[in-house]
Design goal:
This protein is of the alpha/beta class. The protein is built from nine helices and 13 strands. The structure holds D-malate (MLT), manganese (II) ion and zinc ion (ZN). Manganese (II) ion (MN) binds next to loops.
Length: about 300
């Protein structure tokens, strides 16, 4: 199984269009050692032709251009994107669905009933897209059974429920439901290897801990370095916890969580917000991650399981 990181940034991307924080301004001016990143998405394939797009980023068209594997060109109109799976209904994970509207047949879309309800209501993508290709929705059940993805033969995809919030636009904001957010455990049945993907992790609940402990690779929330990162820069009033993201530094932070995993586990952070100092390849924070054996995902990173 191959997993390609199409977009390693959090919502807004890096640099963010209207942001002049030290990272965004520094990247534009070429004065910091960092690389640009598009918004949160990965793609998974077994045969290298049929891909599961996990989250449809606002930059999906750029991501398809940058990854020719996603365009096998078997006929005059074609795509390697066999289906899309959404882990939540956030704008950075769903807006790209609008960009895929030129398909000839309804787009297979895997998501929980809760995510599908937000996409039928607060952000009515289901209705809008019904006037274009339409969506062939496949509700994800959170009953412990792996998803049936025929084009990912030999790989089980296990959804893991996460306690967090639906997006700000959701009628259920402040009244979270099980199914608003999930992580994914990919299990390669041929070699037993497992990868846990969760770009939004507010807390390490028992089921998350179990999934991480069982995995050979964890690709998890790298949004913020500190709880008050956005507040200190004057960019938001919301601490990381309110946004559903566990910061890396400090007691109980992601570094400590990852340190508790076996040394053999590959640890990679993804969904990095543009304010995060770990984006600077020569920063003290980045060096601290390296000292703990923690990598920072970048667009184009490929992981073989
Ligand atoms: C988040 O995960 O908190 C998002 O990146 C927010 C957003 O897309 O606006
Ligand atoms: Mn996000
Ligand atoms: Zn910024």
């Amino acid at each position: 199984m191959r997993l390609k990181v199409l977009g390693s940034s959090a919502g807004g991307g890096f640099p963010q269009w209207n942001c002049n924080c030290p990272n965004c301004a520094g990247l534009r001016a070429g004065t910091i050692q960092a690389r640009a990143r598009t918004q949160s998405s990965v793609a998974v394939s077994v045969n290298g032709v049929d891909w599961l797009l996990v989250n449809a980023s606002p930059e999906v068209l750029q991501q398809v251009r940058e990854h020719p594997e996603l365009q096998p060109a078997r006929q005059v109109r074609d795509s390697g994107i066999a289906a899309v799976l959404l882990i939540d209904a956030q704008i950075d994970h769903t807006t790209g669905l609008l960009m895929l509207r030129e398909r000839g047949t309804p787009l297979p879309l895997y998501a929980t009933p809760e995510v599908l309800s937000d996409l039928g209501d607060g952000f009515p993508l289901t209705r809008m897209l019904s006037f274009y290709c339409g969506l062939d929705t496949r509700p994800i059940a959170l009953n412990g059974t792996p998803l049936d993805l025929p084009f990912l033969g030999g790989v089980d995809v296990l959804p893991v429920p996460l306690t967090s919030q639906p997006p700000p636009y959701s009628p259920f904001r402040g009244k979270p439901r099980v199914g608003d957010n999930i992580g994914l455990l990919f299990v390669n049945r041929s070699n037993g290897r497992r990868l846990f993907y969760a770009p939004g992790l507010g807390q390490i609940e028992p089921q998350v801990q179990a999934a991480m402990a069982s995995a050979d690779v964890v690709l998890v929330d790298g949004t913020f370095w500190t709880e008050d990162e956005m507040i200190r820069l004057g960019l938001s009033k919301k601490p990381a916890a309110v946004m559903g993201h566990l910061p890396q530094s400090g007691p109980g932070g992601m570094i400590e969580v990852l340190d508790a995993l076996p040394a053999s586990t590959r640890k990679v952070l993804i969904h990095i917000n543009n304010t995060n100092p770990i984006l600077r390849e020569d920063s003290a924070e980045r060096a601290e991650l390296s000292a703990h054996g923690i990598e920072v995902a970048f667009d184009g990173l490929e992981i073989t399981l």
